[in-house]
Amino acid sequence: MSPSDQILWLLVLALLAPLASSMLALVLPREMNRTAGWITTGVMALAFIACSAASYLWINTPGQGPVVWNIPWIPIPGTQAGWLYLGVMADSLTILMMTMVTLISTLVHLYAMGYMAGDKRFNRFFVYLSWFTFSMLGIVAANSLIMLMVFWELVGLTSYLLIGFWFEKKGPQQASKKAFVMNRVGDAGFLIGMGLLFYHLGGQLLLPLAGGESGNIFDNTLELLKGQGLSVTQPPLWLTVAGIALFFGAIGKSAQFPLHTWLPDAMEGPTPVSSIVHSATMVAAGVYLTARIYPILTPEAHLFIASIGLITLLIGACMAMVVTDIKRVLAYSTLSQIGYMILGMGTGAYVFALYHLVTHAFFKCCLFQCAGSVIHGAGHEQDMRQYGGLWRKMPITAVCYFICMLAIAGASIPMTAWGISGFYSKDGIIAGAVNYAHALEGYGVWTQIFWIGPVAVAYLTAFYMARSFALTFLGQPRNAHLHEHAHEAPWQMLVSQVMLAVLAILALPAMVLQPIQDSTPMVSYVQPDAVAAAGHGPLGYHQIELLMHKGFEQAHLYLGLGFGWLVMIVLGVALYWPGVKVSQRIATLPVVRLFYTLFINRFYFDALYDVAATGLVKLLALIVAGFDRFVVDGLVNGLAGGAVRLSHLAGQMDNNRPDRPLTASAAGSSLPVARPGRVRVYVLVMFLAGTLIMFAMVGLMVMYR
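RE: above sequence
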């Protein structure tokens, strides 16, 4: 068996392993709950080993190119493609993502063994968790948009089941339905974009490959545009619309503005769900989709994507600064960090956007698990105002949280280029944004917001993470009873946290950047089309490298030469060490109070949706119900009532004008008088009623045509 075949089968094994373990856990009896947990955890570890072996083969096979397995699925006569395909596509990005997802999922499974202990539906939770992992792996391994769409919907279904796992409570019920519905809104755009590509490309929906393959959407798009005398930088309108419509799927799945409000509410689910949904899986799926369709995105689509990412990272950071629920702080932080990745995709920092996806997976999963350990050890209290001084009770959790706080803040040694993982990935995105903003200078001063926004949020990120750390672990206990009974998490939870904290340190550029860059040679650090859109010609690879180096220098300067993160962490710790007393006083200042009210009410998006969306639907339902009751039912009931009245009238006429009595004589007695009625009256009534009913049916058919 060739190395390519070995890589392919190892990835297929890793893909199907979680599905098999979930089916096995489903049929195990309730008495074997713990066994179900260990089986699913062990199988996930085997899936990670299989992905690691595929990575080893890929790295050590000279000249190894993408491996594709296309399986004809549904025939589509009359099109150029002929078939819709299922299958597996393996390139360096696929292998990197599958390795990361299986590793994260293995650690989340292990963490859940401790967190969910004692739950009455323990084995069902692991069924859902493994099924969710299978769905996410299917997205990563998909060879075509149609297969990606199938697993895209499976991720939506399984996330609904996980968020609403504690369905006895109203909170999880509402949160799961909200997540499901808002994702369907985004998926409608996904379907429209896929339909446009299907129509214009003759059914060719295979994803772009690094080495190129006959029939993929990138090659066919270039061929179609070339035949029309166009290009990606001078595209037809349909290509821009298709790219933006496909991206709407990412807006829903990755909780980007304006479909972002479901993510904070998803905190109602168990913490292991938060740690996997908000790190390497569901919210990362939108970034992965954008990466796969990246080569066909037009400059206008890039501008739209960058704008959405910019808005999301700004509003997410603002809301994270004021909430007091420890899990919601991290949820809003996730909004902001995914916004960074989407901004990177839009501004051309493709490699660093995906690099940030990997680093974020490790430190955000660890942060959620640390938050879960605090909640678990503090009697399920989530309000940080009730914490304080917990580092004495939970030293391991505090250290892990601190390490990941440094990672998300982009900590580095001042005046040097050495730092922790988040420093490299976030600075790369900011450098790309700086170059993008400078390339668009000719369109006005407003374009500078593309670098000002992410730089400002970099400072805010360090501040709100220091705030959460200080309120939780530092200072004096603010709830004596809670502090007295607080305790460190079980060993399963601690092992997972420690491993993720170590990975947050070790996810350095040398380990991650090259596989990402190799996945799409046509895309370098800065997307040339974005520069060409500003009036410049396409740049060569060497020019792009120089441009990126210049962007790094400016980004480093804007971030205070490595002192910015340090200043904001010190400020956050100093302000919240004594609790929220000082910040509450600051919040009462006139201008600050205005912003605080806006942030704490989540920019009133939920209220707006309640009025504009929910209220509009209710009003429409009321109008339709009134039309049905008073027009449709009124017409039918009126015809029926008229027929009844006509029959009564005919009966009265018949009773008042009887026929001649029929008499007969038999044994000297008279027979009773017979009143048979008038047949012609009955026929007339039936004819009139039938005519009215026929006219009513024709009218309804015309009305609803």
